[in-house]
Amino acid sequence: MGRRPFIIDCDTGTDDAIAIAAALYCDQVEVKAVTSVNGNVAHKYTSKNNLDLLEYLGFDDIPVAKGADSPIMDNPYHSDGTHGNTGLGNIKLPDAAHKQFDKRLASELIYQTAVEEKGELELLVIGPMTNIAICLMEHPDLKDLVKHIWFMGGSVIGGNVTTTAEFNIWIDPMAAHIVTQSGIPQTMVGLDVTTAAAMKEHHAEELRACGTKAALLCADLLDYMFERRDRGGEDAIMHDAMAFAAAVCPECLECRDFYVDVECFGQYTKGHTMVDRRGRLGKAPNVSVALKVDEEKFCSWLVNAIKKSADR
């Protein structure tokens, strides 16, 4: 059986970069393209981070495309410095010297790849869902061409930007509504599980001992996160890598199927992911929702995924 074709759609900050590294070296997956969106930092940084990262790690053959620099309805907004000024904390990757952006916009690259893969393409969506929603609006038949969407976003209860909304969904709730209602099979990995597993210093030490470019970069990113944590910021939480784990290491997570929709306009609930846990709406489930994570198993999987860079 061949490797599963994936496109990674992301707003590359610190944990996005670690998720990308895990995917690039995964023997189950073939990364067909990486596309960018406004989110953790402004789009001019997220797109450049993707280009620089793939050239730095030696993946010159994987297309990198620019996507949406603003949400469907609202003005651009990005994180409050959690990921540093440019998204990669205090790390400066060498500027890409040879690799160039694909001439296609993200939505067109996603659609053309989905057609080429004849219904087998999977999407790892680890930023706001703007590019996917645009693609669905431009090409309604995309819903029959994508095998599965694995997304980091939302939560069953609570949020991190407001009391009800998680960042990726809150940035562009209309896009998330369009995607969740598209009929494409999908799995939601939200704050309920991502915040329950944090990397520790010994994980960074293990990666540093591996010594590859990818492992050393991920160790440096983790060190930045530890410093951020010690300053009172967010812990070394691997939000985005956990969405990828749902795809390739499902034993890390416990999921259940529910009907999910997104509130787009509420004064206090904009960006809220409504998860009908009790089936009160009488609607068929449309999303597999992660509810629990095995922290030790997940962290071990992630370290080993990045250490596979030694085999390349």
Rounded Rg: 18 Å
Biggest sheet record: 8 strands, mixed
Proportion of beta-strand residues: 15-25%
Q: What structural class do the secondary elements suggest?
A: alpha/beta
Approximate helicity band: 25-40%
Distance between the termini: 20 Å
Quick one: overall form? Answer: globular
Mean pLDDT across all residues, rounded?
96
By DSSP (H or I, 4+ residues per run), the number of helices equals 11
Number of DSSP-assigned strands: 10
The stretches of 5 or more residues where confidence is low (pLDDT under 50) are: none
The H/E string reads EHEHEHEHEHHEHHHHEEEEH
Sequence of strands across the biggest β-sheet: 3-2-1-4-5-6-10-7
Short key terms for the protein model shown above:
single chain; about 300 residues; alpha/beta; eight-stranded mixed sheet; 10 strands; about 35% helix; about 15% strand; globular
